Amino acid sequence: MTTNLNDLTGTWTLDDTHTRLGFVTRHAMITKVRGSFNDFTGTVTVPEAGISGAEAKVTINATSIDTRNADRDGHLKSNDFFDMETYPELTFVSTSIAANGDGGVDVTGDLTIKGNTKSITIPFDYEGTATDPFGNLRAGFEGKTVIERKDFDLTWNAALETGGVLVSEKVTLEIEVSAIKTA
């Protein structure tokens, strides 16, 4: 197992069966709704120069949204939220990746949702590497950041009789990565 981020040279592919691209937001001001996107592809390329020259790209099939409630998922797919017929993909393309001094990396890049692109930074903890039983070298990372729905034109909401709104403006992105080194 390597603990040095600069030892991760090469191309890494997100393992979609062991990676979670999740989110959580407040519902009715008192509870949380969690969900994820289950269909995506992603790669991270780390050059010989080290992690500071790395590049990451993730493409998400928007229709793969899953909040464990078919009615809610249908509403999220509609024009009220993601308008998935018009915008079938969400994308993230890194603009910089740098070691953060805590043993992890800060990944800054352009997140595009519903045709709106905003720069975000996701601090990731580096969990290390391991060779799985099939001989694949894996690297693990966990990160999260908060975005504002309105920045991506996700503005639908409903006022509550008790005050407040049905859906929080803030959404926490929760990302757990298992990446396999490409031979």
Automatic annotation (TrEMBL):
<comment type="similarity">
    <text>Belongs to the UPF0312 family.</text>
</comment>
<dbReference type="InterPro" id="IPR036761">
    <property type="entry name" value="TTHA0802/YceI-like_sf"/>
</dbReference>
<feature type="domain" description="Lipid/polyisoprenoid-binding YceI-like">
    <location>
        <begin position="11"/>
        <end position="180"/>
    </location>
</feature>
<dbReference type="Pfam" id="PF04264">
    <property type="entry name" value="YceI"/>
</dbReference>
<protein>
    <submittedName>
        <fullName>YceI family protein</fullName>
    </submittedName>
</protein>
<dbReference type="InterPro" id="IPR007372">
    <property type="entry name" value="Lipid/polyisoprenoid-bd_YceI"/>
</dbReference>
